[in-house]
């Protein structure tokens, strides 16, 4: 899903390495700009200017703002992804950490919240991205919960399929309330308390 | 919150009665148009034309599209509100019915989903409306859950304050998944199963 970025530090690089690094730099610039001023207000010119490249160079790599958007969302997934893919309770603990990070990058969280909602419209440029993303995330979570259930790590009666949808929904829905009123809750602790109730051992 | 609408059937009415009825007719037209084509694509002209009034007449009652939007959202709350304010398990059952109705009015559900997300931006015209709405809904739900807990209707360990936020979040988050993929779940049954796990008696 995320592009592989060769991290060459030598002076001479092949054309692919240069392209991949430039794409990465553009996405990181777009990431910062969108997180700060939002998708609608973020301009392609600002994103190019921030890293000292021409607007036309940016357009060579990303032909439209919605292409950039898709790339930024993939980058966000990459940042949001836990460093090591821990199984079981460790994976649930990592979800809490993802939410804690979302609390620290409120601009990006707002961007994500708005885009995922707008993308429910089948005509939106990110519709397929979000549809695929949710299908994948829910399936991964369900698989891990099934493994936990088989190993007796979940409370009796917890349904992995329903819980995979619910945990995902809870993370999205809590975001709306938190973004509307930052004082209303600690999202990470809200989620942790919920996940704890599903598990036999301490999260 | 919702305006009071004098339902006079006599030939002569005071100016206020006429105004209230016209506002109501405009809101119902806007409700239909927004639900069908979305907020962004719904035009003030279409809304006026649908009920045979001039565009300028509409502007006399609602000066902007965002004024209309706020009115439509209040009307939606009114429609969504259960006929009788049942207490306890009956109230939870009514939440399931609200979700079932949301499944039957997908266009409006999409509108609500997008608007509530967009309104997390403090500069959005509906920001204060949504902020107030969530504060109110969560507080009402918490109060009812506290009453249920005091009467032994909730399972041990269920925290009314956390659950009021969670149930609200779950309803919002499930909507995103369902709107992206209608085949992914029966939202009403997903919610019912969750609420059932909180309660001692059958929902």
Question: Could you explain the architecture of this structure?
Answer:
2 copies of one chain form a homodimer. Chain A is mainly alpha-helical and 203 residues long. Chain A has helices spanning 15-37, 44-50, 55-61, 65-80, 89-104, 106-118, 127-150, 160-180, 187-198. Chain A folds into 2 domains: 15-69, Homeodomain-like (Arc Repressor Mutant, subunit A), CATH 1.10.10.60; 81-198, Orthogonal Bundle (Tetracycline Repressor, domain 2). In chain A, helix 1 packs across helix 2 (44-50) and helix 6 (106-118) crosses helix 8. The two termini of chain A are 29 Å apart. Mean pLDDT of chain A is 86; it is low at 1-13. At the A-B interface, helix 6, helix 7, helix 8 and helix 9 of A face helix 6, helix 7, helix 8 and helix 9 of B.
CATH class of the largest domain in chain A: Mainly Alpha
| Interface with most residues | A-B, 39 and 39 residues
User: For this entry, what is the oligomeric state of its chains?
Assistant: homodimer
Q: Give me the number of helical elements of chain A.
A: 9
What's the main sheet of chain A like? none
Give the distance, in angstroms, between the N- and C-terminal Cα atoms of chain A: 29 Å
CATH architecture of the largest domain in chain A: Orthogonal Bundle
Uncertain runs of chain A are: 1-13
Sheet-strand content of chain A, in percent, reads under 5%
Count of separate structural domains of chain A: 2
CATH topology of the largest domain in chain A: Tetracycline Repressor, domain 2
> What series of H and E elements makes up the topology of chain A?
HHHHHHHHH
How does the overall form of chain A come out from the CA principal axes? elongated
Protein structure class of chain A: mainly alpha
Number of DSSP strands of chain A?
0
Helical fraction of chain A equals 55-70%
Tell me, rounded to a whole number, the average pLDDT of chain A. 86
Radius of gyration of chain A: 19 Å
């Amino acid at each position: 899903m995320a592009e592989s970025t060769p991290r060459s530090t030598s002076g001479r690089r092949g054309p692919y390495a240069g392209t991949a690094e430039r794409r990465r730099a553009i996405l990181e610039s777009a990431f910062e700009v969108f997180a700060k001023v939002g998708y609608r207000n973020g301009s392609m010119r600002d994103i190019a200017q921030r890293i000292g490249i021409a607007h036309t160079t940016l357009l060579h790599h990303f032909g439209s703002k919605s292409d950039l958007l898709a790339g930024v969302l993939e980058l966000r997934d990459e940042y949001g992804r836990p460093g090591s893919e821990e199984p079981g309770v460790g994976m649930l603990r990592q979800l809490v950490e993802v939410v804690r990070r979302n609390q620290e990058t409120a601009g990006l969280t707002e961007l994500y919240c708005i885009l995922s909602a707008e993308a429910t419209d089948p005509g939106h440029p990110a519709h397929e991205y979000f549809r695929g993303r949710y299908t994948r995330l829910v399936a991964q979570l369900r698989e891990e919960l099934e493994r936990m259930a088989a190993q007796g790590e979940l409370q009796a009666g917890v349904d992995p399929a329903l819980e995979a949808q619910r945990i995902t929904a809870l993370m999205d829905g809590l975001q709306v309330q938190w973004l509307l009123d930052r004082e209303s809750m600690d999202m990470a602790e809200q989620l942790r308390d919920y996940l704890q109730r599903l598990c036999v051992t301490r999260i």
